[in-house]
Structure formats: structure tokens, C-alpha cells
Recover the amino acids of this structure.
């Protein structure tokens, strides 16, 4: 287990389409463990493999801090509704922007044992699933931001 370096916007690896995972091995298990460590260390709610420089279709998500979800080769099979809210990304540090996403999504994926799982989420979990799956296609949320990209923590004016 180790914390890996998070790639930032401008790094070409973030613009590439990731490859499917065809079998589980020690190397990939270590990657998943490291992705979880890296996400928690950075206080993120999700992380996709390309963010640590690996072009594999793997994402980790934890919107509560105690319920990690590992999704391998995930795809969204159902979505409904709409939510508009603030989004950020560990690869775009210090920034945030308004993005509209579905209110509900259902995803099918494989878990770490390569067994098929179904994950349903609303609100933040739905948003995180959409955001992380976009990474696997080489897309960042900044492409979808409505209005301007903002500073995540605006510096308070002392006056
Ligand atoms: Ni992101």
C-alpha cells in the first residue's frame, strides 16, 4: 500500500481512453490498494486509475469515508433526474465548478474479485460515479462546467 502521485490537468495521460481490465493479478490489486490510499490521503471522494498514471478502467469511490467502492470496467446502465452542484477533482487542485449530472445512476461493474456488481447511487454518489467514469474516457469535469471555474476556497478579503 502506498500513496501515489496524482497527475494534474495538463498531463496528457488524463486525456486518454483507458483499457478494460481482463484479469485480476497482484499488480492490479496493488494498484487498487494504492488508489484507495491515495484517495483517502488527498481527502477525495473518488479517484480514477488515469489520475495515478495508469490507463486501466478502474475507479474507487467513497462518499462517506467508510464505504469504499471499487469499480472495474464500469458502465452506467440507467440514469434519471438532474442535479446541479459544485464539483471538484484531485487533478484540478484548488478549483471547483458548477456541473449538472443525473440525480440517479445505476452502474454495472466488476469488483476486485472480478465478480459482476451493480451499484446504485443518488446525489453525491451519482455525481461521483459520473465524474470518475468520465476520467476513463479521458474527460475532466472542467469541460462540463457551467460558467467560470472558481477557486475552491476563496481567500477572504481582510478589509
Ligand atoms: Ni476527478
Amino acid at each position: 500500500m502506498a500513496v501515489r502521485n496524482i497527475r494534474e490537468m495538463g498531463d496528457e495521460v488524463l486525456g486518454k481512453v483507458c483499457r478494460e481490465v481482463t484479469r485480476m493479478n497482484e499488480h492490479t490489486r496493488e494498484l487498487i490498494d494504492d488508489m484507495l490510499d491515495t484517495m483517502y490521503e488527498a481527502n477525495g471522494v473518488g479517484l480514477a486509475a488515469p489520475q495515478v498514471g495508469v490507463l486501466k478502467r478502474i475507479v474507487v469511490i467513497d462518499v462517506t469515508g467508510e464505504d469504499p467502492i471499487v469499480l472495474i470496467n464500469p458502465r452506467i446502465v440507467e440514469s434519471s433526474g438532474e442535479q446541479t452542484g459544485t464539483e471538484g477533482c484531485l487533478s484540478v487542485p484548488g478549483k471547483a465548478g458548477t456541473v449538472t449530472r443525473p440525480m440517479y445512476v445505476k452502474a454495472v461493474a466488476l469488483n476486485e474479485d472480478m465478480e459482476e456488481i451493480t451499484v446504485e447511487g443518488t446525489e453525491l454518489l451519482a455525481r461521483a460515479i459520473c465524474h470518475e467514469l468520465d476520467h476513463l474516457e479521458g474527460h475532466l469535469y472542467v469541460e462540463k462546467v457551467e460558467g467560470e471555474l472558481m477557486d475552491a476556497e476563496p481567500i477572504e478579503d481582510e478589509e
User: Anything to note?
Assistant: Residues 89-91, 131, 135 surround nickel (II) ion (CB under 6 Å). The radius of gyration is 15 Å. The chain has a mean pLDDT of 95. The longest strand covers residues 69-80.
